[in-house]
Amino acid sequence: MMKNDASALRWLMALALLLLVGCAHQPVSLYQWGSYQDQVYLYFKGESREAQIQALEKDLQVMQAAHRPVPPGLRAHLGMLYAETGSDAKAQENLLAEKASYPESTTYIDLLLKKYQKQVALP
Is position 1 within any domain? Predict the structure, then answer.
């Protein structure tokens, strides 16, 4: 009978351990991505640039209100969208903000700035 009690105790302890592990706090993502990934997909499908801009601007407002960092690439993508719709100042503002937030993107952002300077005459 004692052998069964010890076995039952081990099973209860194992079950309790599993329950504790299952309830462990999950890490919070560094970035709040919003609809950014969906907007990139829609970009390549050729969807409305204006609708994508609205969605990303809304995401930015939510991130800023929550004091969360803007994920890498979001402002660059937004800058490209603005450049393609002829909003030169907004394009430059977002591309430079991406470059300031993520200095490792400098080479790519400089390339985009040159490209859009030729296409839409950014200052």
Answer: no
pLDDT in tens, 81-99: 999 999 999 999 999 999 9
Residue 73 φ/ψ region, left for φ over 0, alpha for ψ in the -120 to 50 degree band, beta for the rest: left
Q: What is the pTM of this model?
A: 0.73
Q: How large a percentage of the chain has pLDDT more than 70?
A: 85
Report the amino acid identity of residue 52.
Answer: Q
Residue 60 lies in a domain: yes
**Which of 114, 82, 34 lies closest to 106, judged by CA?**
114
C-alpha distances in Å from residue 79, one per residue of 13, 59, 84, 89, 96: 56, 14, 9, 9, 9
Number of domains in the chain: 1
Query: 57 lies in which domain range?
Result: 34-120
10 part of a folded domain: no
